[in-house]
């Protein structure tokens, strides 16, 4: 178990730094230093292990949250919000029970009741991990979902389908499968298999844009939201491609120095040409002697 | 460190090299080595040059005797080369110098860069012949018709000239970068080690060498460790050790088989799991291995510590000394600025009672094995008045910094002492900073 407490540099930075060192070593005078590159690859392996562990933990947490939210929504659909107080109390209790710790957002939304439009919809800043502020100052979801360069979307916010006003209904989760590098979006019960990361983000964004337009009841708000979303996704995109390149390169190292790394499930769809080129160059560099 | 009647004190003796703060890369010292008597001290630098200093012994009977090392010979050992086949530049930096035991009036040493080892003969010339029959003094040939008599040329004294000539060139035997050379106690053979292989040479034969260790895997992608240093046993000509980047040392016996891939002994200390970090593999990589003079122990240097091993005990070292444990929390920054890859060397004193190694901020450390004491000293121009006693230094790891202590964050990581050498008999040490060579002696009471 690697202790990451020693410094504030996280696994991702270490991966970038290590890759930079390997890249620079190729132009160093005297040729590639086998010993140094071997040591750097060990750091890369260690950082990658921590990084993947963190990602899987996050995905697991999000999946748990998503399941919880799905149950909450089902309950909500069965019991419309205009109940008398007695029933509402029962509702809250049962929801709180089912939502558990993730219930903070869910519970907060329900507590506001039908009186206020609880527009908790997050626009499709699915990629950046940023989020539009919750309109009525409800408690923000746990910060663990908002990592920099996060590849997965924060969990979809439950939108109150019965509220007047914005009535934005977006219920989507984006998950990146690290083994197959396939970005998957679950939206309004429809599963969208986006293509590989890198290309995926853009097409996913477009898809979401279209879907969002269909489900909004209030036409006026559509342009606003879509504009916001597109803008957010644009600036998030460069982050995303950086990290997707890093994840590609991580997968490359899955096939290089294989003695160092545990065997992984077949890596499919390494679709970036650049990634393939660096793989070839790296292997060539090692056996250049 | 206790000598007779109290602690040993070290005094400044000399410093060699430019005073400039602006260090030319070619002047960076890359190796330091005393010869077997200690009379000669050789340094190699990044520019491929070897400088040899000789100890001038003026009057040993006087109690305030101070021996000084003065330049004896300077020559260009290696030049930069280009491997056209692989499109690789071969650095001229001298990685190691090893002296041969003296057999006659001349001195011999082996010097190596990444790819080629050379045997140099350093000889003195203090006479020259005069009175040739067929040649003029300037070397031009006389017209034979003008010669009317014959005479025998005579040798007349001249100013001492020290000549260095390459006697052997041992090339094309290493695919990877040579990190070590070691002369065998039989005085006929020596070994050279690169990242993956160790070769055995005969000093007289340059077109052939025997491969005795090969750890290259069939598939390079399965590479997990490299050879970092190798050395022959000081007395047993069949025994040598090599260290690896994984922190292990293997002792091999050449009588067991021609190819010593299978070790006779494996020295390894299990890793402390509580210290596990991203950089565990880097800091456990051994940068130097040295046998004690008596051949019973060996010392290894990894990034943070020095370990003494008893050749009869493989499962753990008998002694471990922390060189700069305060750097353990800084490994991340040291990784970013590449300092974590620095290869520190270590050395024994003449009677194996004290070991020495370098650190950062031009500090170097000595560990007295018997007295269980250690000291940190500094090589700096500020402390370089003749016979000035070196004051012990202390690094403050955290908390309140006392007077005269230096905090970890103030350490200059560009000032590193990687190479040190100890005179084989006396308490004289040579410490190399980036481009200066400091010579310290113990205080003569």
TrEMBL record, chain A:
| Pfam families linked to this entry | IER
Give the originating organism: Stegastes partitus
The record's similarity note reads: Belongs to the IER family.
Q: Which gene encodes it?
A: ier5l
The protein in question is named Immediate early response 5 like
TrEMBL record, chain B:
* Record-linked PROSITE patterns: PR55_1, PR55_2
User: SUPFAM superfamilies this protein is in?
Assistant: WD40 repeat-like (SSF50978)
Q: Which GO terms describe its cellular component?
A: protein phosphatase type 2A complex
Q: Which UniProt keywords apply?
A: Repeat, WD repeat
Example of a GO biological process term: blood vessel lumenization
Subunit annotation: PP2A consists of a common heterodimeric core enzyme, composed of a 36 kDa catalytic subunit (subunit C) and a 65 kDa constant regulatory subunit (PR65 or subunit A), that associates with a variety of regulatory subunits.
What is the name of the protein in this document? Answer: Serine/threonine-protein phosphatase 2A 55 kDa regulatory subunit B
């Amino acid at each position: 178990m690697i202790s990451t407490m020693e410094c504030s540099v996280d696994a991702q930075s270490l991966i970038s730094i290590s890759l930079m060192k390997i890249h620079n070593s190729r132009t160093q005078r005297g040729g590639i230093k086998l010993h140094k590159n071997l040591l750097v690859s060990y750091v890369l392996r260690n950082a990658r292990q921590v990084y993947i562990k963190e990602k899987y933990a996050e995905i697991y947490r999000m999946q748990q949250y998503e399941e919880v939210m799905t149950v909450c929504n089902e309950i909500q659909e069965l019991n419309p919000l205009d109940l008398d107080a007695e029933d509402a109390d029962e509702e809250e209790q049962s929801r709180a029970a089912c939502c558990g710790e993730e219930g903070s957002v869910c519970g907060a939304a329900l507590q506001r009741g039908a009186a206020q439009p609880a527009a908790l919809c997050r626009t499709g800043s699915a990629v950046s991990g940023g989020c539009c502020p919750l309109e009525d100052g409800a408690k923000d979801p746990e910060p663990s979902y908002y990592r920099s360069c996060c590849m997965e979307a924060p969990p979809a916010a439950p939108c109150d389908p019965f509220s007047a006003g914005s009535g934005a209904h977006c219920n989507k989760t984006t998950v990146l499968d690290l083994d197959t590098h396939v970005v998957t979006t679950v939206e309004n019960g429809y599963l969208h298999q986006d293509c590989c990361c890198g290309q995926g983000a853009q097409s996913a964004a477009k898809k979401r844009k279209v879907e969002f337009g269909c489900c909004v009841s209030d036409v006026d708000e559509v342009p606003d939201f879509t504009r916001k979303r597109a803008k957010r996704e644009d600036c998030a995109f460069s982050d995303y491609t950086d990290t997707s390149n890093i994840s590609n390169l991580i997968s490359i190292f899955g096939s290089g120095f294989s003695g160092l790394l545990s065997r992984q499930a077949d890596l499919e769809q390494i679709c970036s040409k650049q990634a393939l080129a660096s793989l070839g160059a790296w292997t060539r560099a090692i056996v250049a002697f | 460190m206790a000598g007779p009647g109290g602690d040993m004190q070290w005094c400044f003796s000399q410093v060699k090299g430019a005073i400039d703060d602006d260090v030319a890369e070619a002047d960076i010292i890359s190796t330091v080595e005393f010869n077997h008597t200690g009379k000669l001290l050789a340094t190699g630098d990044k520019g491929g040059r070897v400088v040899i200093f000789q100890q001038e012994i003026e009057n040993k009977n006087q109690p305030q005797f101070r021996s000084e090392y003065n330049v004896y010979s300077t020559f260009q050992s290696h030049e930069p080369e280009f491997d056209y086949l692989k499109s690789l530049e071969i650095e001229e930096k001298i990685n190691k110098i090893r002296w041969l035991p003296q057999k006659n009036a001349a001195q011999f040493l082996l010097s190596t860069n990444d790819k080629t080892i050379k045997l140099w003969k350093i000889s003195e010339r203090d006479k020259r012949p005069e009175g040739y029959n067929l040649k003029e003094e300037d070397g031009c040939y006389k017209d034979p018709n003008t010669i009317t008599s014959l005479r025998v040329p005579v040798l007349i004294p001249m100013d001492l000239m020290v000549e260095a000539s390459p006697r052997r060139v041992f090339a094309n035997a290493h695919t990877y970068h040579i990190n070590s050379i070691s002369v065998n106690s039989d005085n006929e053979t020596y070994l050279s080690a690169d990242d993956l292989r160790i070769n055995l040479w005969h000093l007289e034969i340059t077109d052939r060498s025997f491969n005795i260790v090969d750890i290259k895997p069939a598939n390079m992608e399965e590479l997990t460790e490299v050879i970092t240093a190798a050395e022959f046993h000081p007395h047993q000509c069949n025994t040598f050790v090599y260290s690896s980047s994984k922190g292990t040392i293997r002792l091999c016996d050449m009588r067991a088989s021609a190819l010593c891939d299978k070790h006779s002994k494996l020295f390894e200390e299990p890793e402390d799991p509580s210290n596990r970090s991203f950089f565990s593999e880097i800091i456990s990589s051994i940068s130097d291995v040295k046998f004690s003079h008596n051949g019973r122990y060996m010392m290894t240097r990894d990034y943070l510590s020095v370990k003494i091993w008893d050749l009869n005990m493989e499962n753990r070292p008998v002694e471990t000394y922390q060189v700069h444990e305060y750097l353990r929390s800084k490994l991340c920054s040291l990784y970013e600025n590449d300092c974590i890859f620095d290869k520190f060397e270590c050395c024994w004193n003449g009677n194996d009672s004290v070991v020495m190694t370098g650190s950062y901020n031009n500090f170097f450390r000595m560990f007295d094995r018997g007295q269980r004491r250690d000291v940190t000293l500094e090589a700096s121009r500020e402390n370089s008045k003749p016979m000035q006693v070196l004051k012990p230094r202390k690094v403050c790891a955290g908390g309140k910094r006392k007077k005269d202590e230096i905090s970890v964050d103030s350490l200059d990581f560009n000032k590193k002492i990687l190479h040190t050498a100890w005179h084989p008999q006396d308490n004289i040490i040579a410490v190399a900073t980036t481009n200066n060579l400091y010579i310290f002696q113990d205080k003569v009471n």
